């Protein structure tokens, strides 16, 4: 029996300094391991305990990091344990096999987006035209697949985001706000579709999943069992689903709890 574990990374397994959620006294804080460096500075962390659990997980299952990050951003992450053979990047736009993007999957994604969604150029033009420089910090395109804005969250009007979601939905796109990043992603571009393809290739008998954001909702629905932390967009909306366990832990402690759940579920298989 082959168990496949597909998990989101940011704010699910790995955490920036701002997302660590270390609310305990300093003397009781867990030891941390840096797993990502950007421009010469540490950026993302796991606890030392989580590092050991990741190593165990890599040896006990087909572990598939499943992220909205671009391939370049994903390659900055150095997770403990054996290098995963498969990874899903760009919210399902790329399946990496031994670090190389699968061309057949790329072609399938490209055809489907062309058939079902408004163009990236149209969406990007709308974002640039309607965003206010008072709160817009950066505007970016990821992998020629989707767009995102880096915003000053406190200044971003809720009404603007709601109107954008409605406009995008009418054109086959979705909107997700994660921290300071507002993602606008084609609706067919999903983590779950890519994970199902990996599961087919490895003949997985069981799929376990985890995530924290609206872009992870389809991933959680696709798992036989799934977990989400006590923080994030899904927690804010009260998201539930069959087979989903809602964990009370928040911040980096939730990453540990998710890994323990993955391993515990595997032992029952």
If you had to describe this structure to a student in words, what would you say it looks like?
This protein is of the alpha/beta class and 269 residues long. Helix content is 35%, strand content 27%. The strands form four sheets. The protein has a five-stranded parallel β-sheet, with helices on both faces. Strands 9-10-12-11 form a four-stranded antiparallel β-sheet. It has a three-stranded antiparallel β-sheet with strand order 2-4-3. The protein is globular. The relative contact order is 0.18.
Write the SSE topology.
Layout: E1 3-7, E2 15-16, E3 32-38, E4 41-47, H1 48-60, E5 62-65, H2 71-75, E6 86-89, E7 94-97, E8 100-101, H3 103-116, H4 120-130, E9 136-142, E10 146-151, H5 158-169, E11 173-178, E12 181-186, H6 191-202, E13 206-210, H7 217-222, E14 225-228, H8 233-237, E15 244-246, H9 252-268
Parallel strand pairs: 1-5, 1-13, 13-14, 14-15
Antiparallel strand pairs: 2-4, 3-4, 6-7, 7-8, 9-10, 10-12, 11-12
Helix pairs in contact: 1-9
- The portion of residues assigned to helices is 25-40%
Mean pLDDT across the residues is 96
Question: So how many helices?
Answer: 9
Low-pLDDT residue intervals, each spanning 5 or more residues: none
β-strand percent reads 25-35%
How many runs of DSSP E, i.e. beta strands? 15
Helix-and-strand structural type: alpha/beta
**What's the oligomerization state?**
single chain
Outline type: globular
Provide the spatial order of strands within the biggest beta sheet. 5-1-13-14-15
What is the end-to-end distance?
Answer: 8 Å
Largest sheet: 5 strands, parallel
Element-by-element helix/strand order: EEEEHEHEEEHHEEHEEHEHEHEH
| Spatial extent as radius of gyration | 18 Å
């Amino acid at each position: 029996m082959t168990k496949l574990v597909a998990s989101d990374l940011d704010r699910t397994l790995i955490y920036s300094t701002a997302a660590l959620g270390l609310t305990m006294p300093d003397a009781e804080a867990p030891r941390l391991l840096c797993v990502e460096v950007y421009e010469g500075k540490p950026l993302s962390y796991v606890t030392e305990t989580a590092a050991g659990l990741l190593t165990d997980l890599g040896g006990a299952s087909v572990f598939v990091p499943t992220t909205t990050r671009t391939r370049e951003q994903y390659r900055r992450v150095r997770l403990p344990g054996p290098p995963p053979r498969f990874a899903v990047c760009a919210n399902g736009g790329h399946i990496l096999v031994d670090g190389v993007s699968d061309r057949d999957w790329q072609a399938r994604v490209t055809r489907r987006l062309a058939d079902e969604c408004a163009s990236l150029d149209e969406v990007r033009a709308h974002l640039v035209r309607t965003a206010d420089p008072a709160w817009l910090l950066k505007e970016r395109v990821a992998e020629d697949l989707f767009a995102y804005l880096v915003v000053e969250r406190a200044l971003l009007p809720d009404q603007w985001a709601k109107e954008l979601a409605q406009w995008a939905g009418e054109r086959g796109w979705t909107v997700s706000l994660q921290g300071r990043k507002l993602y606008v992603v084609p609706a067919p571009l999903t983590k779950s579709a890519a994970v199902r393809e990996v599961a087919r290739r490895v003949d997985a008998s069981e799929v376990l999943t985890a995530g924290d954001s609206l872009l992870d909702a389809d991933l959680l629905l696709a798992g036989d069992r799934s977990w989400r932390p006590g923080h994030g967009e899904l927690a804010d909306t009260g998201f539930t689903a069959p087979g989903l366990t809602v964990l009370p832990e928040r911040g980096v402690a939730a990453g540990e709890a998710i890994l323990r759940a993955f391993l515990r579920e595997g032992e029952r298989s």
